[in-house]
Design brief:
- The protein is an alpha/beta fold.
- 39% of the residues lie in helices and 32% in strands.
- The chain is built from five helices and five strands, in the order βββαβαααβα.
- The protein has helices at residues 43-56, 71-78, 81-87, 101-113, 128-142, and strands at residues 2-12, 17-27, 30-41, 62-68, 115-120.
- β2 (17-27) and β3 form a beta hairpin.
- α1 (43-56) runs parallel beside α4.
- The radius of gyration is 15 Å and the shape is globular.
- The relative contact order is 0.25.
Length: 145
């Protein structure tokens, strides 16, 4: 199984507001940058979209180390929250619906294909790939302002 590193970030001006996402994929010494955005979205949706779009580019099952500054994404995957929400009909608990179920559904399907190990990195702390993803995400969000 190929080993791939994926770095992601999402950005939103206002929450909700215009948003963007960016990702850097690294495999065997090569890098690919991707980005996108939406006119009216949230930061968490953009964080999820970065991961979904990056994983969607992989052409075969891979072992993925996912670097993100989103505790929402990292914890929901690493601690099994997203699978629990899914099993409970997209409810966080008896009263609260889980947000972004359609995106989590897509991401969990991708996690069924790939072995994804989330690694949380502190945002805006000089991590080069995280800083690059942030620049990509912010540039995309500005296209909608």
């Amino acid at each position: 199984m190929k080993s791939v590193e994926i770095y992601t970030d999402g950005a939103c001006s206002g929450n909700p507001g215009p948003g963007g996402w960016g990702a850097v994929l690294r495999y065997n010494g090569r890098e690919k940058e991707i980005s996108g955005g939406e006119a009216n979205t949230t930061n968490n949706r953009m964080e999820l979209m970065a991961v979904i779009e990056a994983l969607s580019l992989l052409k075969e099952p891979c072992q993925v180390t996912l670097y993100s500054d989103s505790q929402y994404v990292c914890n929901a995957l690493k601690l099994g929250w997203a699978r629990k929400w899914q099993a409970n009909g997209w409810m966080r608990n008896k009263k609260e619906k889980a947000l972004n179920p359609e995106l989590w559904e897509r991401l969990l399907r991708l996690c069924d294909i790939h072995e994804v190990e989330p690694v949380w990195v502190k945002g805006h702390a000089g991590h080069p790939e995280n800083e690059r993803c942030d620049k990509l995400a912010v540039a995309e969000s500005r296209k909608f302002m």
